[in-house]
C-alpha cells in the first residue's frame, strides 16, 4: 500500500493558500493548513473535512517553528510536501519605510520560509522522503514596482534561495521549486490595487490575458510541481501570470 501523502501549506486559510489546499485535498493529499488566524483555520476545516488538518502558528515567531514541525511529524509520521505561501505586503513610500517595517516583512516572507524549510527538510532526510518544497514568490521580484521595497527584496531573495536549496537538496531527493504569481484576485492584491486605479490599469494593461488570475490557477501549478508529473523539475521559478512578465 502506498503511504498517504502529507502536505503543509502555510497561510492556507485564505486567497492563494486556500486554493492550493483545495487542489491538494481534491487529489487525496492530507493537507495541514498552518496559519495565524483561528477563524480562517476553522473555516478551512469545515470546508474541506477530514483530509484537512489545521495548526495555529504565527510563523514570524521563529522560535516556535521547530516545535511546530516536531508536533506535526509526531502526529502524522512524515511530511512530503511543503508550500511556503504565507506572506505579507507593505505599500509605503521608500523613505517612510522604517527598519522595523523592513524587518517585519523579511521576517515573515523570507526568514520564516528558511526556518520552516530547514526543519521540514531535516524530517524529510531523516525519513528518506522524496519531498517537494514550493516557495511562493511574486513577479514583483523581477520588476521594479514602486512603494513595495521590503516585499520586493523578500520575494527576490526567495527565488535565489530556491535555486541554492535545489542544488544542495535535489541530490538528496528533495525538489525545490518556486511559483511567481502575477496579479491574482485575492485580499492582498485588492488592498494593493483597488485604491490605486493607475496601478491596476498598468497591471492589467501589460497582462496579455487581460484579467487578474484566479487563486486556483496557482493551486493547479502547485499541485503539478508537488506531483510525480514534475519529478524531473527542480530549481525553477515558474511565472503564473497571464503573460504579465512578457507583456508590453
Ligand atoms: P492573503 O493575504 O489572502 O494570504 C496570505 C496568508 O498568509 C493569510 O492567510 C495570512 O493570515 C497568512 N500569514 C501572513 N503572515 C503570517 C504569519 N506570520 N504566520 C502565519 N500565517 C501568516 O494573500 P494572497 O494573495 O493569497 O498571498 C499568498 C502568497 O502569494 C503571498 O506570499 C503573496 O506574497 C503571494 N503573491 C500574491 C499575489 C497576488 O496577486 N495576490 C501576487 C504575487 C505573490
Task: Explain what you see.
This protein has 8 helices and 7 strands; from the N terminus they run E-H-E-H-E-H-E-H-E-H-E-H-H-H-E. Helix 2 links the parallel strand 2 and strand 3. 46% of the residues lie in helices and 15% in strands. A 7-stranded parallel β-sheet has the order 3-2-1-4-5-6-7, sandwiched between helices. Helix 4 packs parallel to helix 5. It is an alpha/beta fold. The chain has a single domain, classed as Rossmann fold, CATH 3.40.50.720. The longest helix has 29 residues. The radius of gyration is 17 Å and the shape is globular. The structure holds nicotinamide-adenine-dinucleotide.
Condensed summary:
The protein has helices at 15-26, 38-48, 65-76, 99-127, 149-169, 187-193, 197-205, 215-226, and strands spanning 6-10, 30-35, 52-56, 81-84, 132-136, 175-181, 237-240. With 248 residues, the protein is an alpha/beta fold. Helix 1 crosses helix 8 (215-226), helix 3 (65-76) runs parallel beside helix 4 and helix 4 (99-127) packs parallel to helix 5 (149-169).
Distance between the termini: 51 Å
Under CATH, the topology can be stated as: Rossmann fold
What is the subunit organization of this protein? single chain
Give the C-alpha Rg: 17 Å
Task: Spell out the blueprint of helices and strands.
Layout: E1 6-10, H1 15-26, E2 30-35, H2 38-48, E3 52-56, H3 65-76, E4 81-84, H4 99-127, E5 132-136, H5 149-169, E6 175-181, H6 187-193, H7 197-205, H8 215-226, E7 237-240
Parallel strand pairs: 1-2, 1-4, 2-3, 4-5, 5-6, 6-7
The chain binds nicotinamide-adenine-dinucleotide.
Nicotinamide-adenine-dinucleotide binds next to α1 and α6.
Amino acid at each position: 500500500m502506498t503511504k498517504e501523502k502529507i502536505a503543509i501549506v502555510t497561510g492556507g486559510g485564505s486567497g492563494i493558500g486556500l486554493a492550493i489546499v483545495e487542489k491538494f485535498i481534491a487529489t487525496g493529499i492530507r493537507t495541514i493548513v498552518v496559519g495565524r488566524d483561528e477563524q480562517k483555520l476553522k473555516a478551512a476545516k469545515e470546508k474541506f473535512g477530514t483530509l484537512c488538518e489545521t495548526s495555529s502558528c504565527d510563523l514570524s515567531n521563529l522560535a516556535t517553528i521547530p516545535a511546530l514541525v516536531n508536533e506535526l511529524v509526531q502526529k502524522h509520521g512524515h511530511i512530503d510536501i511543503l508550500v511556503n505561501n504565507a506572506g505579507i505586503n507593505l505599500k509605503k513610500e521608500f523613505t517612510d519605510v522604517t527598519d522595523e517595517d523592513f524587518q517585519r516583512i523579511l521576517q515573515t516572507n523570507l526568514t520564516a520560509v528558511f526556518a520552516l524549510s530547514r526543519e521540514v527538510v531535516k524530517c524529510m532526510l531523516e525519513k528518506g522522503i522524496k519531498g517537494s518544497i514550493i516557495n511562493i514568490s511574486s513577479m514583483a521580484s523581477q520588476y521594479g514596482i514602486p512603494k513595495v521595497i521590503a516585499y520586493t527584496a523578500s520575494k527576490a531573495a526567495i527565488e535565489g534561495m530556491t535555486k541554492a536549496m535545489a542544488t544542495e537538496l535535489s541530490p538528496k531527493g528533495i525538489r525545490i521549486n518556486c511559483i511567481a504569481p502575477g496579479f491574482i484576485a485575492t485580499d492582498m492584491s485588492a488592498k494593493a490595487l483597488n485604491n490605486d486605479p493607475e496601478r491596476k490599469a498598468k497591471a492589467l494593461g501589460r497582462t496579455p490575458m487581460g484579467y487578474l488570475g484566479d487563486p486556483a490557477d496557482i493551486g493547479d501549478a502547485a499541485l503539478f510541481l508537488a506531483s510525480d508529473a514534475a519529478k524531473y523539475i527542480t530549481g525553477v521559478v515558474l511565472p503564473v501570470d497571464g503573460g504579465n512578465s512578457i507583456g508590453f
